[in-house]
Amino acid sequence: MTTSPTRPSEYELIRELRQSRVFSEQPIDEPVVQDLLEIARWSGSAKNTQPWDFLVLRDRERIAAIAELGQFSGFLKNAPLVIVLVFNGTSTRSESYDEGRVSERLMLAAKAYGLGSGTGWWGTPEGAADKVKALLGIPADKAVISAVAIGHPMGNQPLGPNPGRKPLSEIFHYETFGNRSS
Amino acid sequence: MVETAEIVQLLKRVHQTREFTNAPVPPQALANILDVARWTGSARNVQPWHFVVIEDRGELDELAAIGPSAGFFGSAPLVVAIVIDQSTRAPAFDEARVVERMFIAAAAHGLSAGLGTFKPDHIALASARLRVPEGFAFRAGVAIGTAAPRMAANAATTPARKPLESIVHYGTYGQAQR
């Protein structure tokens, strides 16, 4: 396999992924949902354990009910589609890692379809995740902490208190930590 | 403007590589991959990461010798060590998001990537080699390069994944139909 020329359009699309928290009412076409799930299915995981289930929600009342439970899940109520990430609950750290990978992949896939996405989180307040599990019929031994909301982004997206990113010069090191020159 | 089908195909073909040729990584490709990594989202946008680019052969061999899951670092032209501030809210989740992005960005440049991780009792040793300050940890590195021919051939037969119908539920857990 030889290295092909860089394709800046793809690279820029990946770089420009941002969280969306406001969506139109327009539903997501079913073939697109299936493709997003297919891409998520192929995510890498520790020892290829694939410790996930994907719970697809479209019912707005059900989405609203789980949205109000977490400190960082409220915006889910704006989305026509929510994919709750259900984990086996056997290893918190390893599954959190795999969850990060599958979340990022799902969001990039949504971006490829011109859709917006954001992660909702039930880590706080304590007990929120258990309530989500109870509402969605998820067995008690499974773990739920986050979901990816997907929709057609609308208007100006709210920015967090600290938008943007640190410059590369602040976080890039060469060979050893603190060495800035290559 | 990139076509949807093009990026979807890109996402579907991303797979791990653990054996590389000697071909160097073009500097512009590395710069782009780091830029993509820099723009990754993180909990509360704390951006808990630093990236240490390691190209020194001797150093890569030393890191490879620390633990078996990073053993393939010895065959890579470069490794980007991901150094994470452990005091942040979701260090594992955020680190994984960066990793996934770097994999995809590498694929967008026709390159391959592999994730090497150190077990808990090896992290201190790996971190010390890079002179990582206290409170930060070098637990994972992304090796980037051109897949060795054998690995490239294996891409067509990557490890299986569970079928969608066994992991997708609709509305409530256990409901397999839409």
Please tell me what the overall shape of chain A is. Answer: globular
Give the DSSP E fraction of chain A (strand runs of 2 or more residues).
Answer: 15-25%
How large is the radius of gyration of chain A? Answer: 18 Å
Order of helices and strands of chain A: HHEHEHEHEHE
Largest sheet of chain B: 4 strands, antiparallel
- The residue-averaged pLDDT of chain B reads 90
What is the 3D form of chain B? globular
Round the mean pLDDT of chain A to the nearest integer and report it.
Answer: 89
Quickly give the structural class of chain A: alpha+beta
Could you give the order of the helices and strands of chain B?
HHEHEHEHEHE
State the helicity of chain B in percent bands. 25-40%
Query: How do the strands line up in the largest sheet of chain B?
Result: 1-2-4-3
Oligomer: heterodimer
Report, as a whole number of angstroms, the end-to-end distance of chain A: 28 Å
Your description of this structure?
The complex is a heterodimer of chains A (about 180) and B (about 180). By secondary structure, chain A is an alpha+beta fold. In chain A, about 35% of the residues lie in helices and about 15% in strands. A four-stranded antiparallel sheet of chain A has the order 1-2-4-3, with helices on both faces. By secondary structure, chain B is an alpha+beta fold. Chain B has six helices and five strands; from the N terminus they run ααβαβαβαβαβ. In chain B, strands 1-2-4-3 form a four-stranded antiparallel sheet, sandwiched between helices. Chain B starts with a helix and ends in an 8-residue tail after the last strand. Classes of the chains: A alpha+beta (about 180), B alpha+beta (about 180). At the A-B interface, α1, α2, β1, α4 and β5 of A face α1, α2, β1, α4 and β5 of B.
